[in-house]
Amino acid sequence: MRYLMPALLACILAACRPDAPSGVAYFDDFTYEGKDAVYEAHALTGEDEVYNPLLPGWYSDPSICTNGEGDYFLVTSTFSYFPGVPIFHSRDLVNWKQIGHVLDRPSQLRNLGRQQTSGGIFAPDIKYNPANRTYYMITTNVGDGNFLVKTKDPFGPWSEPILLPQVQGIDPSLFFDDDGRAYIVNNDDAPGGKPEYEGHRTIRIVEYDVKNDCTIGERKIIVNKGVDPSKKPIWIEGPHLYKIDGKYYLMCAEGGTAEDHSEVIFRSDSPMEGYKPWGRNPILTQRHLAADRPDPVTCTGHADLIQTPEGEWWGVFLGCRPTLKGFENLGRETFMLPVRWSEDGFPVFLEGNETVPVVVRHPGVKVDANPVFGNFKVEDSFDGDKLGLEWMTLRGPATGLYTLKGGALELKCSSVRASGFETPALVLRRLQHHIFTASTRMRFTPEGEEAAGLLLYKDERHQYFLKVCLMDGEPVIALDRSEETLFSKALPEEFDTIDLEISSGDGQTFRFAYAVDGGEMRTLAAKVDASFLSTAVAGGFTGTTIGPYAVK
Question: Measured between alpha carbons, how far is 186 from 169 in angstroms, rounded to an integer?
Fold first, then answer.
């Protein structure tokens, strides 16, 4: 026979392995495929073209650095997910590969437990100091304050946290001057802790002692309120400091991280004072553009700059891609654009009615065969000895709750629920497309209150759970919205495997489907509202994630 029918093959496989014991769910594989129409409508025509977003899905608050020897490194926020701060490497600013996580040990993520999903790690900043050939990553842990870690080898482990008690507020960023001195800039309260209006914040600076890894001297306010204080600007944050042609440039986000988000620039002759805003700020925003424009990107800001050895300037920033109804489930994504300079010497991403393009040219750069952007398909058979770098857990490593064994991911049903503030038996990866299909094959025999399946997760209160469980003592396939069961169908009293599939064909609704023992895929629920998981409804700073989940 050239092939075996699916049902017969399932029976043969079942005979070759033991039954799934109670309390454990086995996931034999996981497949994710994105098919966004925007990529099909804007097909790449040359080897030097790339898609925006550069990192699709929830990769927010990007920061980038180079060692000046052709290596670029990029990091993004992870909030209360573990491990923290994914780090990507590239040699050409186009082809990026995740090489690990900066914060990959619980000791680096103190007090992450019990924090809400959008707590934890905010806006990491990565820098390279050529004076001591050391890489630094500085960030905020909302539950533990500001800290930095460092390494000589960004492909290897990073140090334990170095706490910075003098640096209050959020969004710290390092700057290494060419005279050997260093500084930390960050967002903090209004002067005296007395804001004049909601969103009144400041940018402050303090000198950093590289040798002793501590701050020194007086901490000063260098921006109060924002570019134009008379207009009561809100949420000046995410600062980065640069020295370019002898001048100091302070680049910040302003306007909050929703549709009014923007990036603004200041300049001074001194790192510690005298910053004046550019007269044509902002240097990046899309807030004034028509909502019905083609392929809209909104919420642009939280940017960082990089210069190539050839002298070209590029910038990374976050943005969102709403659907036709104005919401999105992907979260804040990482975009990249070339940066030009104004006649009076200020960097500019976009001006006037310029929009963030879907396709960007990088002349002379060839895109690898399997880029991290555009439409793609990934399959994980769980046949390694550790999870792939795309997988995350909540608030900690979920030690003892999952195991990789025999080509399967084993999840032990835990009493910790995804609606709580601890670490559940839950393994997640980002949604990266509006139009997608995610599926897994599961072996699970529920008892009592046990349930296992696939979870779509936004936060503690906004979830969809496609699960196998018992109802009135009989096995069913069911769909929960948070803690409420919306749909259920009876399953056979005995079965070996069940395929679970979650998909979206329009970015606005979800379809939940299943197949028993390799049989026909059946729809449990269709046209289920996707906006329930959107930032517009749920709030927060993350995007939607998906993955295997087991609970009791």
Answer: 7
- The tokens for 205 are 């600076």
pTM (whole model) above 0.70:
yes
Pair (253, 399) in one structural domain: no
Q: What is the C-alpha to C-alpha distance for residues 241 and 527, in angstroms, rounded to an integer?
A: 47
**What gap in Å lies between CA 117 and CA 80, rounded to an integer?**
5
Residue 106 domain-assigned (yes or no): yes
Instruction: Count the neighbouring beta carbons within 10 Å of the beta carbon of residue 269.
Output: 11
Render pLDDT for 128-181 as a digit per residue (tens, 0 to 9).
Answer: 999 999 999 999 999 999 999 999 999 999 999 999 999 999 999 999 999 999
Is residue 61 annotated as part of the catalytic site, yes or no?
yes
Residue 237 among the catalytic residues:
yes
Which of residues 272, 297, 322 is at a domain's end? 297
**140 with 256, same domain?**
yes
Q: Which of 28, 61, 207, 480 is catalytic?
A: 61
Whether 371 and 90 have beta carbons less than 8 Å apart is answered as no
| pLDDT 10s digits, 181-193 | 999 999 999 999 9
pLDDT value for 13: 40
**Catalytic pick among 237, 260, 328, 499:** 237
CATH number of the domain enclosing 466: 2.60.120.200
Total of domains in the chain: 2
Residue 369, in any domain of the structure: no
The answer to whether the beta carbons of residues 376 and 34 sit under 8 Å apart is yes
Q: Which residues lie below 8 Å from residue 116, measured CB to CB, with a gap of 6+?
A: 80, 421, 459, 460
Structural domain of 429: 6-34+375-551
Report d(CA 447, CA 231) in Å as an integer.
61
